[in-house]
Amino acid sequence: MLIGAINIANGEANKVKNAITGAWDAVPATARDYKSKGIQWVVIGDWNYGEGSSREHAALEPRHLGGLAIITRSFARIHETNLKKQGMLPLTFSDPADYDKIDPTDKVDILCTELAVGKPITLRVHKQDGKTLDIKLSHTFNEGQMDWFKAGSALNFMSKSKA
């Protein structure tokens, strides 16, 4: 999961700083640590996120390891829907320039109570200096896909619908 992605904080692949321990480790190991502590996490990505041949696995693993959202400037074809099917929030910056306002040390809150078809959602960014910044994010969820998210995945939704 994301082992080939270059981290903007250090210019290296598969090496991220654990926000809790301060240790640098592999992306999957850090995600597993967050999951074990009940901490949801997000990915902030650039253009054409999800490009590649194993898109379904690339959507399944973040969900399995406790991810909540993938926030990008844009998604590769099909990957956005694969994320939705896994119960993830694929979100894009309403203004792509807002990507540059987020630093690797920032913490974020996604105001999920705002999630509605055709409406933007707010990303609240908490800077190290204590300031906050609100950024608008867009999504392409329709009503059926909203049910997938609420159920935790499309498979969960189908399972509950048959019960």
Automatic annotation (TrEMBL):
InterPro entries for the chain: Aconitase/3IPM_dehydase_swvl, Aconitase/IPM_isomerase, AconitaseA/IPMdHydase_ssu_swvl
Cleaved signal peptide residues: none
Residue intervals of the Aconitase A/isopropylmalate dehydratase small subunit swivel domain: 2-95
PANTHER family: ACONITATE HYDRATASE B (PTHR43160), ACONITATE HYDRATASE, MITOCHONDRIAL (PTHR43160:SF3)
Protein name (database record): Aconitate hydratase, mitochondrial
Organism: Neodothiora populina
